[in-house]
Amino acid sequence: MSLIERDLKVIWHPYTQMKTALPPVPIVRGEGACLFDEGGKKYIDAVSSWWVNIHGHAHPYIAQKVAEQLKKLEHVIFAGFTHEGAVELAERLLAILPNNQQKVFYSDNGSTAVEVAIKMCLQYWHNKGESRTKIIAFINAYHGDTFGAMAVSGRSAFTAAFNSLLFEVEFIDLPTESNIQNLISQISNLKSNTACFIFEPLVQGAGGMNMYEAKYLNELMAYCRKEGVLMIADEVFTGFGRTGKPFACNHVNEHPDIMCFSKGLTGGTLALGLTTCTQVIYDAFLSDDKLKTLFHGHSFTANPVACSAALASLDIFLDAATTENIKRIENAHRQFALKIKDHPKIKTTRQTGTILAMEWQTGNDTSYFNSLRDKLYLYFLAAGIVLRPLGNIIYILPPYCITDDELHYIYSKIEQALNEI
């Protein structure tokens, strides 16, 4: 029995209508920016396997560090205990984050990193005896699939079955030159009972690779700071070089109170999430009253093997060669975007750092369920490229190790698709 047949007997895949979906591609190994199926076909992973494999697949250095850790300590309860990897990772990460970030709380994925951030903000005000429960978020936001993360995400097909159960959130537009004062007015009207403002800095990923300017985000953040509204920067997607700087928040002068990380944190090797916060937030939970404790945790909190993978990934990320690769990809994307921007089938191109998005003309509104999506997905898959369009929006988000030849092959197939589809 083939791997596909065995899979279909027992597996329920994410974001997949199992009745109508094509059989999954059976991958048996990865190397660099590429994946290989059981028939030997090679695929360039142009989306870093849902944005996590920033250094490519089966990286030997990460594998080595994980193997070493497995021989020392595979797991230990993190309530009442600690270990070297968790402490070192927190120390090293805080050293490169905005300097107001002082504490690390570990979890196990992006959604839970956001859940922790939301609970920190809500309980911060509760512990201080203030009733501030309103949360502000951007329209079309995506912060995860657990209930709190869904609540602060834009209402969509993803949340439709649960909308009546989600807490109320005030959604505002992405900031622009023309609306920034109106957005500030909206926040002003809500500030007295607002707990926090959560945002994906510079790029909304799953919402359609929507991009906005740092200077207007900075204005919103400055106003929130002035009015005492806590700020959560969801860097689950944008962290670790995706926007051209180590973190998207490096593009703004204001600092968030809380930051969320996952995806590229371990280079895609193991599941790990973490939430960082300021000393002020941490101090609001310090009390002789045990009811002021942050009651949150996971069985695999700060898993030592995942921490070892994250430390190894951080070593690679901070290497000068990775910085050069990020710049190289940025430049290649920029040149390709200029080349195709006037094509009659291209509505718009958008780029921030190593993220390049191309919106195709379809004659109707952009939609996650646009029929063009499946045509494009299968077209590129046949060409040995993994691209996962968001409806009629194609995006390229490659591992930093991708070669120029691999990038240019992707570009050439996109041009070919523009002429053939």
Widest beta sheet: strand line-up: 4-12-11-10-7-5-6
User: How would you describe the oligomerization state of the chains in this entry?
Assistant: single chain
Give helix and strand order, one letter per element, not per position.
HEEEHHHEHEHEHEEEHEEEHHHEEHEEH
Strand percentage lies at 15-25%
N/C terminus separation: 35 Å
Kindly provide the name of the CATH class of the largest domain: Alpha Beta
- Biggest sheet descriptor: 7 strands, mixed
Q: What is the mean pLDDT?
A: 97
CATH superfamily of the largest domain: Type I PLP-dependent aspartate aminotransferase-like (Major domain)
Low-pLDDT segments, ≥5 res: none
* Percent helix range: 25-40%
In total, how many domains does the architecture comprise? 2
Structural class by SSE content = alpha/beta
